[in-house]
Specification:
17% of the residues lie in helices and 32% in strands. By secondary structure, the chain is α+β, with helices and mostly antiparallel strands. Strands 1, 2, 3, 4, 5, 6, 7 and 8 form an 8-stranded antiparallel β-sheet that branches. It starts with 15 loop residues before the first strand and ends in a 13-residue tail after the last strand.
Length: 190
């Protein structure tokens, strides 16, 4: 498997407001990419067994396109995971947050381990979320390579990201649908 962090170079994502993708997104893709509710809850509703595979969580450099969401002078922690449904990889997620957020007792991010960040965030009473941005990831991107290493055919992948605010902290979360995610199923087929 690729070394942590998986997403370590810029230029692979071209995040844009969802409206910019227009008719390139199918109704099914919109259902998954633009849903403002908890992705963790949505995934859990789709399967019998949900699991978080922690790829890594440590201090790292944020990417240039992540810097606009977080304080410029902040030391950041990067957390990357794969979310599995019924033992199949569905989502690669990358979260970036300032060191202050890691130390905020209300958030308790240092203790997450293999617990889902989304479930934790959506339990925060003061949670706010930015608009969702969408990006396509070509097969040759690092996430595309991960997708193929997991045994899936090369293809363009879709992802979304937004910035969550809670306990006075910002947490940038990007989620790229990989593997067996229903986002890539032919509509009307099961």
């Amino acid at each position: 498997m690729l070394a942590f962090p998986i997403v370590s170079v810029g230029g692979e994502a071209h995040w844009q407001a969802a409206e910019a993708w227009g008719e390139l997104l199918s109704p099914l893709q919109c259902q998954w990419l633009l849903d403002n509710s908890s992705l963790t809850a949505k995934l859990k509703a789709q399967c019998q067994h949900f699991q978080v595979q922690l790829l890594g969580q440590q201090q790292a450099s944020m990417l240039a396109d992540e810097a606009r969401w977080l304080p410029e002078d902040s030391t950041v922690t990067v957390r990357e995971v794969i979310l599995h449904c019924d033992h199949q990889p569905w989502v690669f997620a990358r979260s970036v947050f300032p060191q202050q957020a890691l130390q905020a007792s209300q958030l308790n991010l240092a203790e997450l381990g293999t617990r889902p960040l989304g479930e934790h965030l959506f339990s925060q009473p003061d949670l706010q979320r930015s608009d969702i941005e969408v990006s396509a990831f070509p097969a040759h991107s690092r996430v595309g390579q991960l997708h193929q290493q997991l045994g899936f055919a090369a293809q363009t992948l879709w992802g979304r990201r937004s910035c969550f605010s809670a306990a006075g902290q910002q947490i940038l979360v990007a989620e790229v649908f990989i593997g067996a995610a229903p986002l890539y199923h032919t509509e009307g087929a099961e």
